[in-house]
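My main concern about presentation is that the manuscript never shows what a single data entry looks like. The format is easy to grasp once an entry is in front of the reader. For illustration, here is how one protein appears when written out as sequence plus structure tokens:
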Amino acid sequence: MRLAAKGFSAMLSIITVGVALSLTTPLAFAGDDGNSKNVTEDEIVRALAPPPKKPLTRGLSIAPQADPAPSATETKLIQSVRGRSTRSLSSTEREEIASVAKDKPNIDLEITFDYNSANISAKSLASVQALGRALTSPDLKGSTFVVAGHTDAAGGEGYNQDLSERRADSIKRYLVDKYSISATDLVTVGYGKSKLKDPAQPMAEVNRRVQVVNMENKTTASK
């Protein structure tokens, strides 16, 4: 009986220690190792592909369908910023781009950079390369894209604005150099910390992102 009691006591101790460890050690989830999540080419294509056009329907009771092509105002805006340097965009133009882009196909990419730098980090190269392949795929080739850089709330407005612009430019240079994408098809803009994705957590990593937006298709909008 005494041996049985000791065995039971030892087993109880092991269970107690196990429970204590489970309460103090966080569960590990995929992507929780501190590395940015690499997105795939297919995910980018699906996110940026324009919605399919609805077939024309004849019938007296059917209201006129909306034209999927960009409006004249949108087209004029995009034409005015194509080929421009990031730093040349005024705050008004940046806000106009943001207003048009909000209803367009877009994707946020977790692309990280070296500390206090516009150099793309080694761990994010796979995502940038997937972006290059996606933008040159048959589904997306021929569109004009906005590449927008965003920072978290750390630092001053001027510093973050400059950093977001340099990082957007860095992505553009990589895509132009490595994937031969026309520079005029990539409109780069920096927003600094002015458009936090998670305002409740201004220092969160989710705010440090690059957003890519499909603004128009060359088959539906003239140069």
Summary: The longest helix spans residues 2-24. The CA atoms of residues 26 and 32 lie 10 Å apart.
